[in-house]
Design a protein that fits this description.
The protein is mainly alpha-helical. Helices cover 53% and strands 4% of the residues. It has a two-stranded parallel sheet with strand order 1-2.
Amino acid sequence: MTSILERLKMMTSVVDWYCFWLKGEIPPDPERAKRWNRLRKMQEAVITEQAAKGVKMAPLPPLVPAPSWVKPLPNFDATAPKTKASGEN
């Protein structure tokens, strides 16, 4: 991690993971939510596969939206200064 932005993205991902895994929360940002919705589908596939083998597993927590105080992250990439490509004047 070399920049503050990279660190913020990493820490956000970690918090998202714990909120998803422990509480079934999906972040309010649609781009971040896609990741967790895909993961939920994979979890359900594993549970279905295990149930077919007769393995009992704990149910997954229901998916819920994050609390209202959780806000989407700003798009830092859109506000970053544009650099000139080599050869441009």
